[in-house]
């Protein structure tokens, strides 16, 4: 069956890889009593950039072979007049779109919406995104997971030094925009070394205590129940002399982008070692439940000099490179009308 045109040309190596992936897909099942359906319709509403990075020909081909069809949602038409859909996959912003989706969820409870707009909105604000991690206060035999101490500043830059002193935060401080709206600017950050320079920052923002972490962070991608971890280069460690001798605010573009991959770098094993899998699985499971999200990633750091002390410093919904640069490929292998939000079962290769 063809859908939205022909599959683009692939060389022999690509075709062999797809055959291998298809064979792997056939080895998985959702369990007794859940047969593969003949067809499942996924309606998608994505920005052009997200569509380009996500809906690549290889993914569409694999999905089509499993009876899964991706159908573009026409935003100029009523959502209820389109479909019918089994799943609605989206990453658009704006109050109007959120209301459309909420109304659709109310009138079509049989359709799985990935993910609920209110849940997504929760992680678009850095004041609220980490609260569930802090409340969880996860600690077990594999380690502890918390968040850096932080302070929210909504206005009046001149008040920042005094507010920082009253909160007892230690310099240096990482400054991040309060709202995450998908723009490059919302992912920029600054590092403030001295009290005086804090008044040069631009609210609204969040100030986080900087935790030395060996210049490496871990991006933990959550796709349903699947987890994939990759290393990224991050800000280097800061010692006391640097804080004293480098007054000012230093601004950085997006630090942990895919181009900063550290997976193949020659790193100190103590820095490069991935967080324990059981710890990440427990954290992901708890946050899926608390956040109500199925597609997201966490930026995690390990405090330098420790083996088991971790901090979540950011959470992002439906991250841009989850399938591409992060090398996370969704192998959709089973569906069940009874399984609700579990309709899409993912396996990370």
UniProtKB/TrEMBL annotation:
Its cofactor is Mg(2+). Residues 41-120 form the Inositol-tetrakisphosphate 1-kinase N-terminal domain. Gene3D superfamilies: ATP-grasp fold, B domain (3.30.470.20). It catalyses: 1D-myo-inositol 3,4,5,6-tetrakisphosphate + ATP = 1D-myo-inositol 1,3,4,5,6-pentakisphosphate + ADP + H(+). Mg(2+) 1 binds at residues 299, 314. Binds 2 magnesium ions per subunit. Residues 11-20 have a biased composition (Acidic residues). One of its GO terms (cellular component) is cytoplasm. It comes from the Eukaryota. Its EC number is 2.7.1.134. It is an enzyme of class 2 (transferase). 1D-myo-inositol 1,3,4-trisphosphate binds at residues 50, 91, 187, 219, 316, 320. Residues 142-320 form the Inositol 1,3,4-trisphosphate 5/6-kinase ATP-grasp domain. ATP binds at residues 126, 176, 208-219, 234. Belongs to the ITPK1 family. Kinase that can phosphorylate various inositol polyphosphate such as Ins(3,4,5,6)P4 or Ins(1,3,4)P3. This is Inositol-tetrakisphosphate 1-kinase. The lineage of its organism: Eukaryota, Viridiplantae, Streptophyta, Embryophyta, Tracheophyta.
